[in-house]
Amino acid sequence: MKSVISIVTFLVLWLIMAQSCLKFRTSDSKALKEFDTSGVPLSIKTIKVKDRTLHYVMTGNDTLPTIVFVHGSPGSWDAFKEYLKDKDLLKKYRMVSIDRPGFGYSDFGKSVTLQEESTIISPLFATIKNNKPVYLVGHSLGGPMIVQLAADNPNTIAGLVILAGAIDVTLEKPEKWRHVIMQFPLKYLIPGSLRPSNKELWYLKTDLIKLKPRFKEIVCPVYILHGDKDPLVDYGNLAFGAKAFVNSSKIDTLTIQGANHFIPWMHYDVIKRVLIGLHP
């Protein structure tokens, strides 16, 4: 009886804790204070798209070209906060970082397919339009996300930077266990943002099948960076990307020797150099 009580107690405590931990997001008040301390003004905004909310932040001068950062899975806008503070980048760009649908403060927990995400994110481009070039930077699942966005918004995007992006459907393993833990009641045992992450990763293979024929629609320059020791997203995605963007005006690939999946943070200077060079 004591064992049963202990197990039940543990499950109840876990269920309570799972709803509040591992959300991988920074509160608006904390973010404002942190950026104020850094001497960089931070704007925090939301837009409504039908019944969904897109939460994003912005730094820099409104008259400059724009870089839009798109995080992986799980994550939130603050994955790119150091870039948003970077004084060299701020001289050249206005920078925006979004909470993808289902993460951060964009309807947390309600993740959707790449195609559905694009319908929620795409209105952002009209909101931030200043008649200057817009560049997209996507890490991990943010990689195929920016490809989808560029295909859905022709003549809007001036360049793509794909960081360790999962863009090749043939390299996605069939993780059937993800569907199992999406079901009731198991899904309530998955903590925080890992739950919406699991859901969208389950969708990913089908999403990439739908996305594959649209690579030919991308005409802007594409920069692909990947670590050759990435244990999470296969390094073969770089070679795939080098061939897939058949109508891109420029394809530039860079292998980061010995690097794992976390290149936006562990190889900041390499990424920064690429971003600096995006706009003449």
List key phrases describing it.
globular; alpha/beta; eight-stranded mixed β-sheet; Rossmann fold; 12 helices
Task: Write up what this structure looks like.
The chain has 280 residues and is of the alpha/beta class. It has helices at residues 2-18, 28-38, 81-85, 87-92, 114-121, 123-127, 142-152, 177-180, 194-211, 236-244, 263-266, 268-276, and strands spanning 43-49, 52-59, 66-70, 94-98, 134-139, 159-163, 222-227, 251-256. The protein has an 8-stranded mixed β-sheet with strand order 1-2-4-3-5-6-7-8, with helices on both faces. Helix 7 (142-152) links the parallel strand 5 (134-139) and strand 6 (159-163). Helix 5 packs across helix 7. It is globular, with a radius of gyration of 19 Å. 39% of the residues are buried. Mean pLDDT is 90; it is low at 6-21.
SSE layout and pairings?
Layout: H1 2-18, H2 28-38, E1 43-49, E2 52-59, E3 66-70, H3 81-85, H4 87-92, E4 94-98, H5 114-121, H6 123-127, E5 134-139, H7 142-152, E6 159-163, H8 177-180, H9 194-211, E7 222-227, H10 236-244, E8 251-256, H11 263-266, H12 268-276
Parallel strand pairs: 3-4, 3-5, 5-6, 6-7, 7-8
Antiparallel strand pairs: 1-2, 2-4
Helix pairs in contact: 5-7
